[in-house]
Design a protein that fits this description.
It is a single chain. This protein is α+β, with helices and mostly antiparallel strands and 137 residues long. 65% of the residues lie in helices and 12% in strands. It contains four helices and three strands, in the order H-H-H-H-E-E-E. A hairpin with a 4-residue loop joins strand 1 and strand 2. The longest helix has 47 residues. The two termini are 29 Å apart.
């Protein structure tokens, strides 16, 4: 149940992707420095390599924007982690009192329940997870 709640509130693992992006940025920075050193050593004109400089710079900026987006998502995930810990604590407390109904845990997990005339129920959990059920007579 705890794992399902974590999935339902949308916790993502993106640190691996961020590490790959940072390595690529580092490689591009090394390539840029190497290219500058080659141009200076050969006495070539910088404008002759302008397209390559521009390409490296553009790719680096795109990767940095992606890293920033991942960091923002991870910060948001941290707030979800806090919410998950709170819900898990409530579940553990509920397990101690398993023979009595406690409405507070349901209120923490469910954001909205929609009832339709055709006996359909839509239950919306935290994080946008949605479940449909039909009520039998």
């Amino acid at each position: 149940m705890k794992a399902t709640i974590g999935e339902a509130i949308g916790i993502n693992g993106t640190s691996d992707e961020m590490e790959l992006l940072e390595r690529r940025i580092e490689a591009l920075n090394k390539r840029m420095l190497s290219l500058v050193n080659e141009v200076v050593a050969s006495g070539d004109d910088m404008e002759a390599h302008e397209d390559e400089f521009r390409h490296i710079s553009k790719e680096t900026e795109q990767l940095k924007r992606r890293v920033q987006a991942i960091q923002e998502a991870m910060n948001e995930d941290a707030s979800y982690q806090d919410k998950l810990k709170e819900i898990q604590a409530a579940i553990e407390h509920r397990e101690e009192n398993a023979d009595t109904y406690d409405d507070s845990i349901v209120r923490q997990m469910i954001e909205c329940i929609k009832v339709y005339p055709d006996r359909k129920l839509e239950v919306y959990f935290g994080g946008g997870y949605r479940m449909e059920e039909y009520v039998q007579e």
